Amino acid sequence: MKYRRLGNSDVEISEISFGCMSLEEDFEKTKELIHLAFDKGINYFDTADLYQNGNNEEMLGKAVKSFRNKIIIGTKVGNQPRENGEGWDWNPSKKYIINSVEKSLTRLKTDYIDLYQLHGGTIDDPIEETIDAFETLKAEGKIRYYGISSIRPNVIREYIKHSRISSVMMQYSLLDRRPEESCLELLQKNNIAVLSRGSIAKGLLAGKKAKEYLEYISSDVDIVIKKLKQLSNEDRTIGQIAIQFVLNHKSITSSVVGFRTEHQLQECIKALEIQQLSDEELNYLQNIIQPLLYKNHR
Q1: 32, 142, 147, 155: which is deepest, by most CB within 10 A?
Q2: pLDDT tens digits, one per residue of 89-100
């Protein structure tokens, strides 16, 4: 496993990290998979208070208890569950964030969170108030660093200007290169880590049958898959190539992958060990299909 600096922080996280959103409800299976990931060198585990109504944090905290001080835990806040249990509402207020961190700490069975992230955000949010909440929690030692999970360029620019975020989590893959237009270079310039989710595009870049994705029709996706296969062989799969493509971008710190099985975990980690993409191959991949651009929140 290789590690990269988490933006302006003093910690390094694994190039492949564990996105916990897809964890199974069976705790023993979940624990076994998390422990295997740790044994393989993965040290960043990403969850959210929203996932499984908090049970995701609960399982993660219980599973990593024996090696908590050896890993980096990231969780997210901002989606307030409705009292009737049906859905949630967006709430980036200071009061809600301050109250929510206590619940996350309890579920995670820890007295600090390494990376606390705003789970979304709009340009109409009380951004200064939200930043103040994170800074307060940082001063109190309840969180070490903070960031945002957002794909919105206008929101990202505001946090770059007015906060000390260490990271931005955003979707990025061969089928979603929108961040290349204005976000990735800007974040790198400001020493802010990019945690990439969706590297294999919901499995489409790892073997699933082609279907519509974002603004691409199924035939577009099929073209990308077929072109990927031309670079694959018995020693490297299309999924591994897709992950390599993401990690090759100099702004990306880690590819956050939602493992569900040991096989998926092993395959993704192997992406770091197999033959790396050449400049010629990268150029080939970059020219398979016209990249999408953000239409909203620019």
Answers
A1: 147
A2: 999 999 999 999
